[in-house]
C-alpha cells in the first residue's frame, strides 16, 4: 500500500507543481501620501565658546603701597574711574623738587638771554643754560607721569572680578591686581567645515543656546573670520557678537550654534510614514 501511494505522488507531483507555478505572485502593498509644498531651510550647527568684548588684568606700572581700593568685587565700573591709589608722597616730593629746578633754570635762562643779546656773556653759557632748562623740564614731566601712575584708572567700563590684594599691601610693578571685563556684548567663537565657506558672509545671523537658559535663544551676527583654515580639522574659526544687556552670558560658557545657510521656496516634501 505504501509503495502504491508513493507511485501516485510521483506521477501527479509535476502536475501540482505546474498549477502552483502558474499562479501570479502576490503584490507588495503600497501606501500613498500627499506631498507638501513648503520652504526648505539649510542650516549647520556647531559648538562655540563665549568671550568678553573686552578683558584686561589691572596691573601697576610702578611699585608701591596700596593706600586705597575704590571698588568692590562684582561692581560695575565706569571708564576712567580710579580703581587703586598707591602711596604718592615720594613722587610728590620729586615733582616739587623738579618744579623748583625748572623755575630756577627759567630765571637763569631769561637773565642770560638778555645778557647774550648785549654780548655780555658767551654764546656757550647761554646754550648751557638753555640745555639745563630743557633737562629740568624733562625731569618735571617724568615726575608728573610717575605721580599720575599712583592712580590706577579703569581703561573701559566693565565689571570688576575677584581681586588678589588688599589695602596696605606693597605691590611690585607688573603685579596682577584685579580683572576687569566688559560683557555688555559677548563674542562667540565657533568653527565650521571648510566646504561651507562660500555660503558664509559678514553680517550673517546666528542663533545660540546655552544649558543655563534652555528655553532662550540668543541672536547675534558674524563680524569676523580667521585668516586661515585649520590644516588638521579643515575648519574655519568664525566670530560673532551677541548683545548681553542682562548679563546672562559669561565668558567661557559653552554654546550650541545654529547658522542658516539659505532657504529654497516651493520645495516638494514627502511626509514620513508612521
- The average pLDDT value, as a whole number, equals 85
The backbone outline, from C-alpha atoms, is elongated
Quickly count the helices: 3
Residue windows where pLDDT falls under 50 for at least 5 positions = none
Terminal CA distance reads 58 Å
Query: What's the SSE pattern?
Result: HEEEEHHEEEEEEEE
What share of residues are in beta strands? 35-45%
CATH level 1 class label of the domain at 39-53 and 182-269: Mainly Beta
Radius of gyration: 41 Å
Largest sheet: 6 strands, antiparallel, barrel
Q: Using the 3D structure, state the CATH architecture of the domain at 39-53 and 182-269.
A: Beta Barrel
Structural class: alpha+beta
Major sheet: order of its strands? 1-8-11-10-9-12
Q: What fold name stands as the CATH topology of the domain at 39-53 and 182-269?
A: Elongation Factor Tu (Ef-tu), domain 3
Q: Helicity level, as a percent range?
A: 25-40%
Query: Got a strand count?
Result: 12
Q: What is the CATH superfamily of the domain at 39-53 and 182-269? A: Efflux pump adaptor protein, beta barrel domain
Describe what this molecule looks like in 3D:
There is one protein chain. The protein is of the alpha+beta class and 274 residues long. Among the domains are: 39-53 and 182-269, Elongation Factor Tu (Ef-tu), domain 3 (Beta Barrel), CATH 2.40.30.170; 88-149, Helix Hairpins, CATH 1.10.287. 28% of the residues lie in helices and 39% in strands. The chain has helices spanning 2-22, 89-117, 123-148; strands at 36-59, 64-69, 76-77, 82-86, 151-153, 158-160, 170-171, 176-193, 205-210, 213-225, 235-243, 254-269. The strands form 2 sheets. It has a 6-stranded antiparallel barrel with strand order 1-8-11-10-9-12. It has a 4-stranded antiparallel β-sheet with strand order 5-4-2-7, with no helix packed on it. A hairpin with a 2-residue loop joins strand 9 and strand 10. Helix 2 runs antiparallel to helix 3 (123-148).
